[in-house]
Every structure is written in structure tokens, then in C-alpha cells.
What we know:
By secondary structure, this protein is mainly alpha-helical. Helices cover 80% and strands 0% of the residues.
Amino acid sequence: xxxxxxxxxxxxxxxxxxxxxxxxxxxxxxxxxxxxxxxxxxxxxxxxxxxxxxxxxxxxxxxxxxxxxxxxxxxxxxxxxxxxxxxxxxxxxxxxxxxxxxxxxxxxxxxxxxxxxxxxxxxxxxxxxxxxxx
Length: 134
């Protein structure tokens, strides 16, 4: 559940930063080249987080199936159908994932709150990003 929360939190932050950069070229805070570099960095982090999400799905599914082998065999011996077993395993995976996703949004929102409440004084003292080529 923690790994899901971390992944969702990171993806939330990336989405907010991407929308934040979308409004920057017209304001003069960043040049077009700086925004392009920052978008490439966001793309790399997005690929990393989506890869982490894929690994989470595989590992969590594998662990759930291994943990439930004996219980599944017992349920099948007592008359559970394959459809019921599939539904039980899916529920066993979805509930913790849903809880982790919900919990992951709040830390992501907390990390992005300074971006949404920027005062003019904060933007005046913020160090400017310098592209190595400029």
C-alpha cells in the first residue's frame, strides 16, 4: 500500500508541475527553452514512476496469489467456483490499492501547495533557472 501511495503521490506532483509549466511561457518566468528542458525532465520522471507502478502491479499480484494458495485450495475443495476465486483475489488486490491511491493524493497535494499559493514577493526572490546553453 505504501508503494502505491508513493507512486500516486509522485504522479500527482508531476501532473501539477506539468500544468504549472503550461502557464509559464507567456508570463516571462521561464523562457521557452527552459520550459522545454523542464518538460523533458518531467517526462523522464513520468516514465520512471509508471515503470514503478508496473513493477508494483506485478509484485503485488504475485504476492497475493502466493499468499492465497492454501486458502484458495481450501475454498475450491469446499465448492467455490473459479469465478468466485477470481473475484476474491481481485478484491484482495483492489481494496489496498484503492486505499493507497487515495492516501497518495494527499501527500502529492501537500507537495504542490506552494505552487498554487504563490505570492508576488515569493516570485521576486526566487532564483532563476539558467539553461547551460544561455
